[in-house]
Amino acid sequence: MINSRYAWFEESLKKIALLASVGGVLAWDQETGMPPDAVGIRSQQAGILSGITHEMRTSQALQDCVEELLNDSSLTPYQSVNVKEFHRTLQKSIRLSKEFVEQLSLTVSAAYPAWYQAKTQNQFDIFAPHLEKIIALKKEEAQLIGYAKHPYDALMDEFEPGFTVDDADRLFTDMKTSLLPFTKRIASQTQPNDDFFRQPFDSFSQKKFGRSLLTAMGYKFSSGRMDHSEHPFCIGLHPSDVRVTYRLNPNDLSEFIWGLMHEGGHALYEQGLQTKYWGTPMGSTVSLAIHESQSRFWENNIGRSAPFWKYWFPVLQNTFPDAFKNSDFQHFYVGINRIAPSLIRIQADELTYHFHILIRYQIEKSIFEGNLSVNQIPTVWNNLYKEYLGLDVPNNTSGVLQDVHWSHGGFGYFPTYSLGSFYAAQFFHALSAQSPIQEWLEQGQLQPITTWLNENIHSKGMELSANELCKKITGESLNFAYFMQYAQQKFNPIFNLS
């Protein structure tokens, strides 16, 4: 016999998800093809949709139903997960008024084009007033939601449930203690040459290669598409509609390849969710760190490995015969794994990348402690780049304006990038112990890897927390030692370190 109350609850969640997906289409359009003059009306559209969605999500009828179902012993395990997880997020949602949600949505919709203009014109002042409004609203949000120790905890919890400043401080301390000296040791070595990427690459061939790569990874183009955007991203509207974007650099192929593999990892997660559960927690991704583990897994653990390029380097040579006619495999492999500090996060190597994240974490933490104003951010940003990466930041376009996240109100998001990389290394270790992954990669067989990820991660929804999922797959909680082990085993031979 069907539990009628639960059936109504699930149907309500799916209606909310449908409305939210409409907002997702508007967000995708804004970053890929919206006319510049449409900013005003798009902000209004996004604002009213967010308000209606929030109103539906926090309706008294739905709150009453959830409270009733929490004590219903007839629910199946998957139904109980849906009820308990929705109840957890509902407790935060009901503390935010419809008016607040609409105001935040209006503010971020107007902020994106201002960020884009500021970045294009290298004028932080264009974006600064919008950033001030967003930060004020996010500070208010943290107070409304509540937190135990630190206001930044409330914002990180939105992306990584249960993750706190104390957790982040411990993780980044471990990173600075072991990864920083290791990275500096490598960076002091003579770096391999990667000039083969600094030449003309026509856009048609880049996109052709990218489609082949995504298809081999298991990305279904019947349920997705590739589009250009200023900042690459993936958006999952439904498992049948998962879109990725890329950024083409006509004189640097590397930016396209690993950016696309990164977003492809996100897309495989979204396409791998169980359609029958869509709209409910059991049909949703478990956390941003696990999401990022999938993108970083494909971008680095797979996409910068020697076995992977044993198969794909000849494909690359056939696609760009003039560009790679004087390159051999070994020259190419060591070249794509050079470790050299760079200004741009999304172009960073897989080791120095994490200091880009640390810089953003320290800035965001200081903002929400009340120790950093908007007009101070560029100076602090530049000082931290000098401290951790030894770089002088020449302008704000290459500095504080390079990321889109703050224009979206995404405070608390950045730590999940590093957290995801550390999860990825641990998952890669588990997969390597269970399968002939090197053989698969050398033969160009990527689908078995996607199948393993789908069975162990994608299809699980929110059945387990991120840490519980990690324990189930690897036998233990997240352990930074796996990332260091991976880094040492890979880079010691490349740079002839003991």
Structural class computed from helices and strand pairing: mainly alpha
Mean pLDDT over the residues:
95
Q: Report the count of strand segments.
A: 3
Strand content: under 5%
Biggest sheet statistics: 3 strands, mixed
Your description of this structure?
- The protein is mostly helical and 498 residues long.
- The mean pLDDT is 95.
- α6 crosses α7 (151-159) and α9 (203-217) packs parallel to α10 (253-271).
- It has helices at 4-32, 39-57, 60-69, 77-93, 98-121, 124-145, 151-159, 165-187, 203-217, 253-271, 288-302, 306-319, 329-335, 353-369, 377-389, 415-434, 437-442, 447-456, 466-474, 481-494, and strands spanning 224-228, 234-238, 241-246.
- β2 and β3 (241-246) form a beta hairpin.
- The relative contact order is 0.11.
- Strands 1-3-2 form a 3-stranded mixed beta sheet.
- The protein contains 20 helices and 3 strands.
Please specify the SSE layout and strand pairing.
Elements: H1 4-32, H2 39-57, H3 60-69, H4 77-93, H5 98-121, H6 124-145, H7 151-159, H8 165-187, H9 203-217, E1 224-228, E2 234-238, E3 241-246, H10 253-271, H11 288-302, H12 306-319, H13 329-335, H14 353-369, H15 377-389, H16 415-434, H17 437-442, H18 447-456, H19 466-474, H20 481-494
Parallel strand pairs: 1-3
Antiparallel strand pairs: 2-3
Helix pairs in contact: 1-2, 1-3, 2-5, 3-4, 5-6, 6-7, 8-14, 9-10, 10-11, 11-16, 14-15
